[in-house]
Amino acid sequence: MSVQGEVDMARSRVFGEVAELYDAARPGYSDALVAEVLAYAALGDRAAVEVGAGTGKATMPFAATGTPLVCIEPDPRMAEVLRRNTVNHPGVRVHAGAFEDWQPDGRGYGLVFAATSWHWTDPERRWDLVHAALAPGGAVALFWNPQGVRDGELHAALAGVDRRHGMAGAPHGEPASSYGEVPGDWAGQPGWPEDECRRDGRFTDLRAVRYRQDQHYDTDHYVGYLASLSRYRVLSSDRREQILAETAQVLNDHGGGIDMALFSDLFLARVR
Ligand SMILES: C[S@@+](CC[C@H](N)C(=O)[O-])C[C@H]1O[C@@H](n2cnc3c(N)ncnc32)[C@H](O)[C@@H]1O
Questions:
Q1: I want to staple 71 with a disulfide (CB 3.0 to 4.6 A). Which of 50, 102, 241, 267 is the partner?
Q2: Would the CB of 73 count as within 6 Å of ligand 1?
């Protein structure tokens, strides 16, 4: 993943290999976060655009409020699951393609949001693109779901597996107790993506909010979650299976399953 430099294109498109697993294993986004975004955007009769909708983990709670949505998703395997998940929401339109190739057609949108996907968009163009899509006063909402292991001993054992395989980093890089209160520090870049937006200069009313809830995974669910992460997907299948088997063994040796702190970091801004 790259938050500021060049995007690893191949890595940005690996999720569709396991679209169903992704849909089953990844956490969703809380109603509180969705309510905060909609209150901030005050859409009125304007529609929203979702960048990198995937299988619809964030689409669904927005669609449930009746918000008209254009969902941009470049991976056809993810888009297929997205279409299936949103079949009962006629206000959801799926656009197959990358954000960088999408044309807003002069329609002024009230909100552009990106759930766990902004880091996959082109850092040189994304603020121009989002600015072009929004009506004056339109909102941008970017959010992620970083997670940290709550038990220090279990965290150390999982970090040991990762280290043996040269995989150090999230979600076992640091225990949940080190995550602090500051939204955005999960990528090792405090201030992300707020600083980038502030430098752009065309947006105002910047806000960042961190939510936290506790999440328990059984071993299979957690291993499935890891297998849906791009850093595991880019490994050869033999290597991935080996690391995941060792990870599962560690969880089972610690009583089975894992308790995580699930954070949702939300960043908001609006066009001046
Ligand atoms: C980690 S997934 C997030 C999916 C979903 N938003 C969620 O929260 O579960 C990242 C998604 O962004 C998509 N993506 C990658 N590059 C993109 C781009 N340039 N424009 C739009 N979407 C992109 C991927 O295909 C993938 O579905």
A1: 50
A2: yes
